[in-house]
């Protein structure tokens, strides 16, 4: 019976991991599908691309709000149910986007999608930690590898949906020397070609419907897990209650918030601007620049896949150290030697690979030293979302002001330096012993000292006893030797004295008394006293 229960528990845990990987695959597709379909969304609401940039802001704000709400709700309700409801909300938003004709309504839908994705991101990471505990490393890597695969699949899916329409030429906006923008349809162009607009709407509609349907199917799996896995959720909460908070728990969470802010900000910034850098600063062709961009994301996704197996053999701290070292070396090469083509290509590949494992390894690492609750995980996701939103915006602003400075490369270098500095500080705080641990160590040392003292005392007592026994044995041998001499001397004397003399009679009781065999004399006869006196005289 115990074996069957253990097998059922292991199957449930693997089922949760599989469902989470499927959910993160959908999360990656939901986020990445906006890029290739953005011009079609602008045409669908009758706006220029530059006029609806605020839908990204709406989605980012929704993502932040969803992370906060998800962190609070995760500590109050069942995780499987929460994740299922968040995917249903994402599905509703994806279904509604293609039919949305108003830019304000489109922003609201994007905010709803962002909020539900924030809940999914926060809850998924915490559920994986609670499900596997100290063994969560490979499973965390698998989750985020699934996200990378989803982000890779979404543009392909959109390309397939829009495949027939891309052969048709669309009116384009004029290009400038300061930006390398792809040609996009304007509102006037969209209104001038209503038949083409209807065809584009019908095409890109299917990419959102397919992703929404996929998320609906995955949500059904979580509803099933909710109906079967309530006991597992209770066990995870019980294990959390038994765990210990680190001595500097709040400081650790705050520093990891900043760590993820710089890391994710650098990752998104480089992935977003490397194409422009390659064309403006490296003077590459568009195909070469696109290939360089693909090298970054390809190395990123490949390394995340390899990290699933590496996490089974390496500690999270070791993986973070290796990643930060490679990130520092590659970002230095990109910042100071990117004018060499070889340095640019190799540095981009190494930088993408070094960024792949930091986020999942960071969450697995912090779980070894303190309790990661829903609120803590929400702060990690908020830090990552703020980095994704703020650092690229700042880099874009600075690049517009300083046209001849490769701001993106210096940003990658500065971010790497910040993460390299923050991680040792976090490690020092994480390994600081608790007061209870110090008390236990002191009690253990006191106990050992008392035991060693008692052993020394026992050894000394044993040595004293042995010494006493040795002395008594030596005394016994001396007495025996003396008795033998006395007996021999007395025997010699008795041979010289004639028999029946008073001296022989008087010496016999004293000899018997020395040898321990004193005779019983009744009434204390005067003959004994006289014998003693005679013995003294003879001496």
TrEMBL record:
Question: Which keywords does UniProt give here?
Answer: Membrane, Transmembrane, Transmembrane helix
Transmembrane stretches, start-end: 12-32, 52-74, 81-98, 104-130, 142-162, 205-227, 248-275, 320-338, 344-366, 378-398, 410-430
Keyword Signal in the entry? The reply is no
Compartment annotation: Membrane
Primary localization:
membrane
Q: How does it sit in the membrane?
A: Multi-pass membrane protein
In this chain, the stretch annotated as Disordered covers 491-539
Superkingdom as given in the UniProt entry: Eukaryota
List the GO cellular component terms: membrane
Keyword Transmembrane among UniProt keywords: yes
Which protein family is it in?
A: Belongs to the major facilitator superfamily.
Query: What is this protein's record name?
Result: MFS4B protein
Organism, per UniProt? Cephalopterus ornatus
């Amino acid at each position: 019976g115990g074996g069957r229960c253990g097998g059922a528990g292991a199957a449930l845990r693997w089922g949760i991991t599989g469902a989470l990987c499927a959910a993160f695959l959908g999360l990656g597709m939901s986020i990445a599908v906006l890029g290739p379909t953005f011009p079609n969304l602008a045409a669908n609401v009758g706006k220029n691309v530059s006029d609806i940039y605020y839908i990204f802001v709406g989605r980012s704000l929704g993502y932040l709000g969803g992370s906060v709400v998800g962190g609070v709700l995760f500590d109050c309700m069942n995780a499987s149910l929460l994740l299922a409801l968040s995917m249903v909300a994402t599905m509703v938003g994806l279904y509604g986007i293609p039919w949305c004709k108003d830019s304000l309504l489109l922003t609201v839908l994007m905010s709803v999608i962002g909020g539900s994705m924030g809940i999914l991101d926060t809850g998924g990471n915490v559920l994986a930690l609670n499900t596997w505990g100290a063994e969560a490393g490979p499973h965390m890597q698998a989750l985020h590898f699934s996200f990378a695969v989803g982000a890779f699949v979404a543009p392909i899916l959109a390309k397939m949906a829009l495949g027939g329409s891309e052969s048709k030429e669309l009116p384009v906006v004029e290009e400038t020397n300061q930006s390398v923008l792809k040609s996009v349809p304007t509102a006037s162009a969209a209104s001038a070609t209503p038949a083409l607009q209807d065809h584009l709407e019908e095409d890109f509609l299917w990419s959102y419907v397919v992703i929404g349907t996929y998320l609906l199917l995955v949500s059904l799996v979580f509803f099933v897990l909710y109906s079967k896995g309530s006991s597992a959720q209770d066990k995870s909460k019980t294990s959390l209650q038994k765990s210990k908070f680190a001595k500097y728990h709040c400081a650790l969470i705050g520093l990891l918030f900043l760590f993820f802010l710089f890391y994710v900000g650098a990752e998104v910034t480089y992935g977003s601007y490397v194409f422009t850098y390659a064309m403006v600063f490296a003077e590459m062709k568009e195909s070469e620049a696109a290939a360089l961009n693909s090298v970054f994301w390809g190395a990123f996704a490949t390394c995340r896949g390899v990290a699933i197996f590496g996490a089974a053999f390496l500690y999270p701290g070791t993986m973070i150290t290796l990643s930060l070292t490679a990130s520092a070396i590659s970002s230095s090469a990109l910042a100071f030697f990117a004018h060499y083509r070889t340095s640019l290509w190799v540095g981009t590949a190494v930088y993408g690979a070094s960024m792949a494992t930091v986020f999942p390894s960071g969450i697995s690492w912090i779980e070894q030293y303190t309790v990661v609750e829903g609120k803590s995980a929400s702060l990690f996701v908020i830090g990552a979302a703020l980095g994704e939103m703020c650092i690229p915006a700042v880099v874009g602003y600075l690049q517009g002001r300083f046209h001849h400075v490769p701001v993106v490369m210096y940003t990658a270098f500065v971010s790497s330096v910040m993460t390299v500095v923050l991680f040792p500080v976090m490690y020092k705080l994480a390994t600081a012993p608790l007061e209870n641990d110090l008390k236990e160590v002191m009690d253990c040392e006191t106990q050992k000292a008392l035991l060693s003292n008692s052993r020394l005392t026992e050894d000394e007592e044993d040595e004293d006893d042995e010494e006493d026994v040795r002395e008594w044995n030596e005394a016994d041998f001396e007495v025996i030797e003396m008795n033998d001499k006395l007996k021999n001397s007395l025997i010699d004397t008795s041979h010289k004295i004639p028999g029946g003399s008073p001296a022989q009679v008087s010496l016999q009781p004293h000899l018997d008394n020395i040898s321990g065999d004193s005779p019983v004399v009744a009434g204390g006869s005067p003959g004994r006293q006289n014998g003693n006196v005679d013995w003294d005289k003879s001496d």
